[in-house]
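Reviewer 2 asked us to include a model.

Predict the structure of this chain.
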Amino acid sequence: MAVPMDQRDGWIWFDGELKPWREAKIHVLTHGLHYASAVFEGQRAYGGEVFKLREHTNRLIESGKTLDFTIPYSADEIDAACRQVLASNNLVDAYMRPIAWRGSEELSVPARNNTVHLAIAAWVWPSYFSVEEKLKGIRLQWSKWKRPSPETIPCKAKAAGLYMICTLSKDAAMAEGYADALMLDYRGYVAEATGANVFFVKGDEVHTPTPDCFLNGITRQTLVGLAKENGYRVVERHIRPEELADFEECFLTGTAAEVTPVSQVGDFRFTPGKACQTLIEAYSAAVTPQQVAAE
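Predicted model (structure tokens):
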């Protein structure tokens, strides 16, 4: 049985200082808990370096601004804190979770008088899906929940509250024997999985939904570039669910998922092949710190 997250050993960076893991606590009446006034990042370290750290830090800061609060640390300070967390926990390959939230000065819908806090934790967390699942492709079920209109949610922010329907969707899919769920958007177009973006392959074309009502993931952006570098034509567009019958391969991308082939979405079937293998290898090479040859 896995050790509960609050019972682990190590160090968490909390409001400017390292605290013992088990002592990094907040009050039960914290605004971020009751009203989801919190933003976070998911990022991975490979070989002791956080992949695209500054891009993640910048998105964290911008997500806070979208929720109308300012994180009281600069990008340089946050980057340095992330590196300190890795070093203090003796981690080389790890998953990292920075999170900023409004505190417990007041508990009502208005939140301007509440202090903004920042914590950063890191731990060993292998790929979101097992090696066995990746090799044969994971199975996805359709979610009954839809990504809302951008007029109703701050869809460009990585905000905590936006993930509730993701939790509901994934739990329901897993209860039916699937690994994850694929969500449509409010218009009925294919959107994303519960914690990852989705891509489809047909010949030398890679198609992916336009991120106009969901997060344009940093890993997604990386894979768009890698696909182009490897000779694929990338098409970002609205994709109707019935179009899945026209595609040969499918894969998910995300910090946790990395690049994960998909073998099934509802009644649609895919066979992980050349494109998935090529892009898995390309991503692995991209995240591996380059060793500088000694002179």
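The chain has seven helices and 16 strands. Helices lie at 31-35, 53-66, 75-88, 131-136, 164-175, 218-229, 274-287. We have added this to the supplementary material.
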